[in-house]
Amino acid sequence: MKKEFYIKNRKRVFDKIKDNSILILFAGNAPKKTGDEEYPFTPNRNFYYLTGIDEQAHVLLLSKFNGENKEYLFIKDIDEIMEKWNGKTIRKEEAREICGIEEVKYLSELDKFIDKLVLNKEELNIYLDLEEKNSSYDYLNKIKDRYYNISIKNAYKIIAELRLVKTEEEINRIRKAIEITIEGVENLMKNTKAGMKEYELEAYFDFVCKKRGVKDLAFKTIAAAGKNATILHYVDNNTELKENDLILFDLGAQYKYYNADISRTFPVSGKFTKRQKEVYNAVLRVNEKIISEMKPGVKFLDINKLARDLIAEECIKLGLIKNKEDVSKYYYHSIGHSLGMDTHDVELEGRNVTFEEGMVYTVEPGIYIEKEGIGIRIEDDVLITKDGNEVLTKNMIKSVEQIEEFMSK
What we know:
The protein is α+β, with helices and mostly antiparallel strands. It folds into 2 domains: 3-163, Creatine Amidinohydrolase, Chain A, domain 1, CATH 3.40.350; 165-408, Alpha-Beta Complex (Creatine Amidinohydrolase). It has 12 helices and 18 strands. It has a 6-stranded mixed sheet with strand order 6-5-4-1-7-8, with helices on both faces. Strands 9-10-13 form a 3-stranded antiparallel sheet. A 3-stranded antiparallel sheet has the order 14-17-18, covered by helices on one side. Helix 10 packs antiparallel against helix 11 (300-317). The longest helix has 23 residues, at 168-190. The chain is globular, with a radius of gyration of 24 Å. The protein starts with a helix and ends with a helix. 40% of the residues are buried.
């Protein structure tokens, strides 16, 4: 992204915060794993959305007093000894070029700088990202006793509303993540055979991602054969594939912090049994119907209810239930979620979202029949457009005929 993207995002945040306020966002730090080893660092997504900087420990501060907006970035103090071990950290000029903030200071100046802002103010709003446990909560505990004249506000909801609608640059990153994911799925499908372990097959996807420069996956890959596919978040991936199994893959590459999220289910043997085909086509019909309904002005909650009703009808046809109310025995999640910098991207409270142009949502109906060892989910990523939608995952094979033809080769 060019720095203008982050400048524009900050301007939109300024428009939404109250006067007489400061907003503080933390890049975060890599949590400790064990001994002297840390987990890989990934930036707080709201910090990244407003700065484009993906190093740990930095802090963004926005101030708004008497209608005047000011921006500050506090970067880590330079430690030349540690840089010999871990590499150089960002310099002021580099930071300015990435995010477009001219006032760049060092972290050692932060506390005194905030003291100066708060001093002599009768009342002050401090906006922090308080959606999940993160560095903001540590800071909140620190300032509760330090300042008496502050009112704490949650910046997450403000930024979430902005992140729901993607720009063309963001959509292009999602497209790239999807392109890599599709290549990875096709690679693992080509190499599927009975007797393999789920993790062996998963490795064919990982190889493509690494080869294409992917640093991190959107989430831990689900590779679930047979009845394992009836467990929504099955990630052990250590069971042997059997000849008549279906295997469900739920996976995604991450490209420059933007994610793909695709689910595909296919037969290990390359051919669906009659029953597997019946269930698969039932799920596929719901997938395609829901996608056809997605357009600006449609409410997510309405299509979520429609999906549940449609799956209930399919379950009745399949002889699984007699009453629609019993559908939760075989379908126990929502139809999808927002997709972006997080796989389960920002959501409004209660998922009370009305689709707008530029939103990206997954569509992932499923039917899970443990007693038959059949778990099927078909997930696509859908962009809401001006007049309807675009299926971003349209190049991923999906029908029974396409899957069997592809695997026969």
